[in-house]
Amino acid sequence: MASPETGSTSMTNPPGQLRIDDPSLQRMPGQAQSTLNQLIGETKTGLMGIRPFLHISPETTICRTIELMYDADASGVLIVQANQVLGIVTERDILQRATEQYERISQQPVADIMTPCPTSLKFSDSVQTAIKQIAQFRHIPVVDQRNQPLGILTPYRAFEFVDALLTEVAES
Amino acid sequence: MVDFSHALSEDRLEQLDLRNAIAVDSHTLARAAIAMMRQNELGCAVIVDDHQRPHGIFTERSVISMLLRGSCLDQTSVSQFTDPLFICMDKRQTVKSAWKTILDTKARFICVTNDDGSLFGVTGQRGLATYLAKHCAENPPTEVSRQVNQASPQQLDAGSYHFPQHGA
Q1: B106 Cβ under 8 Å from any chain A Cβ
Q2: Least CA distance to A126: which residue of chain B?
Q3: Which residue of A has its CA nearest to B96?
Q4: Domains, in order of start, for chain B
Q5: Which ranges carry the CBS domain (chain A) (predicted)?
Q6: Which residues of B touch A163 (CB under 8 A)?
Q7: What pLDDT, in 10s, does the model give residues B29-78?
Q8: Does B132 contact A135 at a Cβ distance shorter than 8 Å?
Q9: Could you give the 3-state DSSP secondary structure of residue B164?
Q10: Could you read off the pLDDT of A66-81 as tens digits, one per residue?
Q11: DSSP strand E in chain A: where?
């Protein structure tokens, strides 16, 4: 946890998370002999690589947020309070809302520049739904039934997942 | 989805919905480049030479680096903060080559060039995400998917869930 001045910060990456190279995942496409298309339409978003993800409190300063994103090589960060997603800040938000007046606002809370109530995906949404959303939004929070954050989906993570399925289908 | 795999190998980059690139010279000040990126809602500006051939890229990641170092937007040129992930591909290369390149490098942008090496457009993760979405057809759920979707987040987090085997 960070100091009170910067708010709480955390990189969530729990042990045992399902990875794209998890052996259990690799069993699916070949043995199911289903088409990749079907799998994309049928599999849960929660199975995609949605972790690790960076999350911070809304009180975190803009300056600290940028440092954390840079250090974590993350292009987006969730703003979380009481285990609920309040908003999201991405490199695009920083470009659009912070860059030109950075010296003046760098110590302000990140909540001032976040995108509130971002479009989210449920854990149980299909990968197909996720892929359609990711064509519109580069960073999509993934939440559980209680809207608690589970991760962030990015295009790269979607590509990794689909590419693994492509490989499996090709080899089956 | 076999169609998607086939399309990846057959389609050329010039067939993608490429974004019109912001082309700047190496002396362009960061403030000017950022203003263009904001106005056009693009995440990068391509640094080109006198023949419009790309030789660097200034991205949102470059902006983050600038802010962290306290660089003045009016005294810093784009060439001082180019993104190390600078990738150019000919417009006749396949979409699959771009797909693999992005998977290998995590690059967000790819500069697409004409035969003479001049800038044709820009694509990247966003462009490929759109391409992927276009190739996702609707399908009714099957028994396999119903079983998979009964897995709880806890099972998946714990890595305890195993996909059902076909015919099992």
Answers
A1: yes
A2: B149
A3: A163
A4: 2-134 (3.10.580.10)
A5: 49-104
A6: 99, 103
A7: 999 999 999 999 999 999 999 999 999 999 999 999 999 999 999 999 99
A8: yes
A9: coil
A10: 999 999 999 999 999 9
A11: 9-12, 53-56, 76-81, 84-90, 115-116, 121-122, 140-143, 149-153
A52 touches chain B (CB under 8 A): no
B34: tokens are: 């950022």
CB-CB: which of B64, B144, B158 is closest to A16? B158
Would an 8 Å CB–CB cutoff place B31 in contact with chain A? yes
- CA–CA distance from B139 to each of A36, A46, A165, B1 (Å)? 11, 19, 16, 11
User: In chain B, which residues have their Cβ closer than 8 Å to the Cβ of A17?
Assistant: 156-157, 159
Alpha carbon distances (Å) from B9 to A140, B6, B94, B100: 28, 5, 6, 11
d(CA B28, CA B47): 9
ipTM tops 0.90: no
